[in-house]
Automatic annotation (TrEMBL), chains A, B:
Annotated HAMAP family: SerC_aminotrans_5
CDD domains reported in the protein's UniProt record: PSAT_like
Positions bearing N6-(pyridoxal phosphate)lysine: K198
Keywords attached to this entry: Amino-acid biosynthesis, Aminotransferase, Cytoplasm, Pyridoxal phosphate, Serine biosynthesis, Transferase
Name of the protein in its database record: Phosphoserine aminotransferase
Protein origin, superkingdom: Bacteria
Length: 363, 363
């Protein structure tokens, strides 16, 4: 820990790389010798163009995607994407197909329902979202316009460990909580989106990575700001973009490159997750993981203790050790440690050590 | 000028108070002893709640509004409001009425047109948007759901000097470029909105100040994120808000209070504007203002020189004096000096002095 900083296990807004914050701090009054803050420069200036385009290029490079994909910066969070997706793609009587694997995938489906175009193609709701539905549990409707999945479920602590096969139906994924956390064959997705406030930057930017051919013709009877091609045609500069947020996302992407890219991130993230899952699995039931083992998230580790009293004690004592933000979401209860890219190994080690000590003191 | 800063006349994103930027810089790694950046704290935490609610309260206090008004923080800029307004209010066959006084008011109207509910109630297009239509030039349709105006036209440099009388029809105003720049009887408006990146903060937050009774019942067949009551019911925390931007808006609002509130801002802004309009009016036609005198903006001063060559020379020489961002928008040409709240008197004085010197050297 440095500069009076705590270990921040918040689910989002979440920890950012200290290096990135320090860089932003040092140039906050005068960006790149412009004599202005990056918050004050014109979004039509060459200085901003460089920030914007470098962020896009680095993200595509990290994901190993080529010219057939486009990076967009949108506002309104994943919740706005939930509405844009059916409006843009569930056309001509076709239906949006959804796998329900947690809270946000269910909200995405409900938003399609408002438009009368939602179909449930798979669900783990009956299992209290402890697992990700398997390939053979996903049944697409005959009129499927797309299949929508949420790749990592922040609240329940589950994550896909495979990419669903859709036999040609476009695959759309909400990766808000595991974007750029590991390599994947991203070319199997038609559209990937993420509210950046978990793994990539401050709240207020939605990163969308999309196959160009998928958004060539957005419907013209929907609001301009809800058409994907409004963003692709104007390099996400149709109106003033959330420039400071995009600047921060660019810095985080450059930081990931410096760490060795997505493969290096994946290895580091797997090591970090193993520390906590081992602490759970070796606790003789003192800690009970929420997620089924084959669906465990590398980003959000959820677990419960014997009772709520003990859980409250755990949260309070952890906080005294500067281990913050580990109280779980009310719909699962217990604990949730969010260990995104920016969380250092030492932070997770400190939590794992604390878990061992707390168990011994409270058996 | 301090700390290698220039005088920034950009139209938006635009200059922010140096004091505010310095404060943000000093606490960027550790907000309020939380051990986290304000970008990293949870939007459900008491620390963030205080930031959020203080910003709302200060804005209402500055505007002299009571409990019958609500402050909302939305994303997507004014362009998203253009679509939300007809979706939320032009219902039951009623029509959105629009006064066209420039580029953005026209875009707002066009967005209503996409929904088939737009009516032009007045326009100064034939006069190349040199003036604001007068009260008797505004004709509401019999089925008017609301009257929409753009109070200050950033591109053309015009501003309303009166509040249109609508005889009970709800009045809606885009105040993106003059929000909190002067007192006004804000209670005559049903809804006021502003992309904050001109007068109030970094891009990525839309400030909406609205009469509670006007948004009680948003239609349930439109996307959740486009219903005004989604924001009012959840204190603008239905999903993760653009927290850093709201934090900056809060700091700017507190700074305005410290300057003496809207009356003090209005006086300062009038003095600043007079410097430039006097320089134009006393130039014997060397500088030609775009706006008609009775419609001149206190925020954006637009003027032309004899030819484009001379204009290019003006921009280049001004830049050498650290007077930046004064090239006009392509649809008007010439110069535009944006002199928002945060622009100090000395900056405008430096520009006025330069205008005099440049005229003498280039007569």
């Amino acid at each position: 820990m440095k500069a009076n900083r705590v270990y921040n296990f918040n689910p989002g807004p979440a920890i950012l790389p200290l290096e990135v914050l320090k860089e932003a701090q040092s140039e906050l009054l005068n960006f790149n010798n412009s004599g202005m803050s990056v918050m004050e420069i014109s979004h039509r200036s060459p200085e901003y163009d460089e920030v914007h385009n470098k962020a896009k290029a680095d993200i595509k490079e990290l994901m190993g995607l080529g010219d057939d994909y486009e990076v967009l910066f949108i506002q309104g969070g994943a919740s706005t994407e939930f509405a844009m997706i059916p409006m843009n793609f569930a056309l001509d009587g076709k239906k949006g197909n959804y796998v329900l694997s947690g809270s946000f995938s269910t909200k995405a489906y409900q938003e399609a329902e408002i438009q009368g175009v939602g179909v449930v193609a798979g669900s783990s709701k009956e299992n209290n979202f402890r697992n990700i539905p398997k390939q053979d549990e996903i049944k697409l409707s005959a009129d499927a316009a797309y299949l929508h999945i949420c790749y990592n479920n922040t609240i329940y602590g589950t994550e896909y460990h495979y990419i669903p096969e859709t036999h040609g139906v476009p695959l759309i994924a909400d990766m808000s909580s595991d974007m750029l956390s590991r390599p994947l064959d991203f070319s199997r997705f038609s559209l990937i989106y993420a509210g950046v406030q978990k793994n990539l930057g401050p709240a207020g930017v939605t990163l969308v990575v999309v196959k160009k051919s998928f958004i060539e013709n957005s419907p013209e009877n929907i609001p301009t700001m809800l058409r994907y091609n409004t963003y692709s045609k104007k390099n996400s500069l149709y109106n003033t973009p959330p420039a400071f947020g995009i600047y921060m996302v660019g810095k985080v992407a450059a930081w990931i490159k410096k760490q060795g890219g997505l493969q290096a991130m994946a290895e580091k993230n797997a090591q970090k997750a193993a520390l906590l899952y081992d602490a759970i699995d070796n606790s003789n039931g003192f800690y009970k993981g929420h997620a089924d083992k084959d669906s465990r998230s590398f980003m959000n580790v959820t677990f419960r203790l014997a009772n709520e009293e003990l859980e409250a004690k755990f949260v309070a004592e952890a906080k005294k050790q500067q281990l913050c933000g580990i109280k779980g979401h009310r719909s699962v209860g217990g604990m949730r440690a969010s260990i995104y890219n920016a969380m250092p190994y030492e932070g997770v080690k400190a939590l794992a050590d604390f878990m061992l000590k707390f168990k011994e003191e409270n058996l």
